Protein 1
Amino acid sequence: MLTDSAVDGGSDYPEHVAAVLGSDAPPETVRDFYVWCDEFGVGTATVCLPDTVDRSPYTEAVADLEPSVRVVEEVGDADEGSRFLSYLGGRDELVGAFRLIAEDASEGRLGSDEVDAEAVEERLAVPGEPDLLIESGNALSDVLVWQTVYSELCHVDTLDRSSFVGCLEDYTERERRYGR
């Protein structure tokens, strides 16, 4: 059971939750994910869908949510916000970030000694590092490759409210080790 401190956004609670869903995920599930995140005080929420899905039903399903959901289809789409819907694969995202670094370097806006992890992070399509990554079904793919290196993982067969709460409960019982 989630503790009061977890529900109130206490220190054991994930600040950023990302969900990786397959192409068979109903648009309502994507919308519900953001609602659940709001309900449980999650500050930043990200949903990743395959780039092959018909995007319009998902984009329409979240169109009227507040805070608004930023749709990410290429590097540069999500520079700020707390809700993201990404159709971008991790390899494409990293290549895009590296291209932006190369452009900035060739145009003199970035010196070679300034190319570091922070420079890459500033150019990623989806900002931030999720504390918790929920993967649904067989949906794990190459999304958020850079951002999730230290994320806690939770696998569910189907993402619904019960499995979402279960992942939050599991997260609050873990000891974060950040690769140690």
Protein 2
Amino acid sequence: MKRWRTTPGRAAHKRGFSLVEVLVALSLLAVLMAFLFGSLSFGRRALQMSAQTERAASVAAVQLALENLLSRTEPLLIAGANRRRKLVFEGRSDRLAFVANLEGRTTLAGLYVVEILAAPESDGRTVSSLHLTQTLFRLRSAENVGGLPSYRRTLLTEIDSLTFRYFGPGGSSHDEWLDEWIDRSELPKLVEMRVQFRRGDPRLWVPLVIALKLGRQN
């Protein structure tokens, strides 16, 4: 009877992978997977840090712009009821309206009624946005009049609250911080503006305190 012989090479080929080889392959695969997930995690953290840095820079830019704008407040007096002259400045705890002289880089140059307030998001959510409205001022009236050039911008989104305080003579004629500054004949010496973000929001608002123009009111 004829016997078939197999060569060592063919026998090794039919035998397949040994247990040691499989373990080595799995170990290498585990190392590669760990490296891959580590790289993805690092990339995700880098993107998050970049976004946080960008949002923090946005807050700083808004603060700088508002500080510059409030420093342009004009101590403008107009005739009110009973011929009593009143200041065109309405400061409340949650909003502020004043007159500022704008240079006209993005708008027509001149006096504008500027209002800073928080309003609900357009999608109806409970969070608010910080808005800035500029309306060309008409000397005959301090009220907003239809047809006058008006500009509205959203400065910050997803804020929790907006708070103003005003420093100047109070009821006892001594300077103190007040929640409102309405129907006065002079500007407050200081205006403090605070913005509170939602819990968990990494953005930080450093309390903004601005000294106003205290020159002669006309």
